Amino acid sequence: MNDQRSRRRFLRDTVFAATLAGTAQWSCSDAGRNRKVVGTNQVTLPGFEASQSNSDPYKGWEPFSERKIRVGLVGHGVCKFASQFGFQNHPNAEVVAVSDLIPERCAEMARVCNCAVTYPSLEELVKDDRIEAVFVATDAPSHFRHCLEVLKHGKHVAVAVPAVFGSLEDAERLFEAVKASGLTYMMFETSLFRESLYAMRQIYRAGELGQLVYAEGEYYHYMEKPIDSFKGWRIGLPPQYYPTHSNAFHIGVGGGRFTAVSCIGMRGVVEHLQPQNNRYANGFGTEVALFKTSEGGTARMAVSWDTPGDGGERGRIRGQKGTFYDKFEGLHPLKTDTKRPPLPPGMPLGGHGGSHGYLTNEFLQSILQNRKPLVDISMALNLTVSGIVAHQSALKEGEWLKIPGYSF
Q1: Cα–Cα–Cα angle for 318, 319, 324, nearest 5°?
Q2: CB atoms within 10 A of CB 14
Q3: Where would I find the beta strands (DSSP E) of 22-181?
Q4: Does residue 319 come out as left (phi exceeding 0), alpha (psi in the -120 to 50 range) or beta?
Q5: Can you tell me the distance from the alpha carbon of 27 to that of 37, in angstroms, rounded to the nearest whole number?
Q6: Computed from CA positions of residues 26, 252, 390, 186, in that sequence, does the dihedral angle turn out positive or negative?
Q7: H helices then E strands: how many in the chain?
């Protein structure tokens, strides 16, 4: 009987782990009509798909430390985001506390993460002296405030996108707070570890793309009805307030930034994208930005909520020595290894093209190795603030506006 129970438990845990790794955002259940059913009561939102790679993500893994970072996770909303990045599966992390404002969601996250300690809010969780780092997966308008709270309590912070929400003043305050803290800050921009963008970055760093001339990025996410969200923050969201998935296809490749923007907004055709129907008085369903880059080139970045059809997060780039449009073509045959780094066995890749596990691994490694993470405060703000200014340009019918830059 004991062996039978053990087999049942093993099968149950195996199925759960496979589901977590393969579908990731399994609880994002209402994204309008542009969604694919992947199983009973499961959907895949545009951009939330699992990795399609056939390569072994664990081959070549070598432990880099025996220490476990004690982590707190905050935010178990409609996308269950805090538990989706595999902190509970990583050999260098111990999830010691979780929190969500809604008790039922908090209890569910505790079960998923096998964590016995819960707190009713982030403000209570950060008082726990055992916690060394916090993953903030709360509503986007609260990211700035919550990250400041984590830093104030002397803890490293990882945060879902965007870094700030529509405010250039908040960007300045966050930048100064991170610099003064001496702590690790990392924004979990998923496009950075998509296979295509990871390959672009490796090829660029090896010098095989040459100077960047032009880039394109798109975040197409049709929402006839907005995804459920805390206090309805997604309802009528200005597209370029959520720009990082597309902007990453330039900034995340070469590490530069955008210096100026002219953005055109197209009036939305669905109900929540009418100015009188959302808190932002926003009427744009699509915003397409033309950026000047710090390398002297240009980039075209689009975010769209109201164009049905093929969706997701993708991009392409052109350099003076080569291009990457789903594959590399250049002056010479490609020499660079573009395979993503290995993950510890059992660590789920997760959604957004199998990027989740890599972001968590990068965050933990950066703390243990005492180095800057890939998406540090500078890149996080350069990815985010360019969209805020782009929306301002759209409100001015495409007027060229300068974009503040961050370097640390």
Answers
A1: 45
A2: 10
A3: 36-39, 42-44, 69-74, 93-99, 118-119, 133-136, 156-159
A4: beta
A5: 12
A6: positive
A7: 9, 16
**Which tokens go with 179?**
């610099």
Span 192-340+377-402: which CATH code? 3.30.360.10
Let me know: does 70 contact 115? Beta carbons within 8 Å: no
Is the distance from CB of 50 to CB of 21 less than 8 angstroms? yes
Please check whether residue 289 is in contact with residue 266, taking contact to mean a CB–CB distance below 8 angstroms: no
Q: What are the pLDDT digits (tens) for 124-177?
A: 999 999 999 999 999 999 999 999 999 999 999 999 999 999 999 999 999 999
Is-contact 247 163, C-beta < 8 A? no
Spell out the domain ranges in the chain: 192-340+377-402
Could you tell me the two tokens for 67?
């220490």
Distance CA 242, CA 246 (A): 9
How confident is the model over 201-244, as pLDDT tens digits? 999 999 999 999 999 999 999 999 988 899 999 999 999 999 99
Supply the mean pLDDT for the chain: 90
Q: Which of 303, 310, 273 is nearest to 288 (CA)?
A: 303
Spatial CA neighbour of 243 closest among 381, 53, 96, 49: 381
DSSP for 209-231 reads S-SEEEEEEEEE---SSPPP-GG
Alpha-carbon 353 to chain mean position: 11
22-28 long-range contacts (CB < 8 A, ≥24 apart) are 22/50, 23/50, 23/351, 24/48, 24/50, 24/84, 24/348, 24/350, 24/351, 24/352, 24/356, 25/79, 25/80, 25/84, 25/351, 26/80, 27/78, 27/79, 27/80, 28/78, 28/79, 28/227
Contact criterion met (CB below 8 Å) for 106 and 100: yes
Pairing mode of beta strands 328-330, 298-304: unpaired
CA angle at 252 for the pair 246 and 256, rounded to the nearest 5° = 110
Structure tokens at 105: 């969601």
The identity of residue 328, as a single letter, is: F
pTM of the complete model: 0.89
Question: Which of left, alpha, beta for 304 (phi over 0: left; psi -120 to 50: alpha)?
Answer: beta
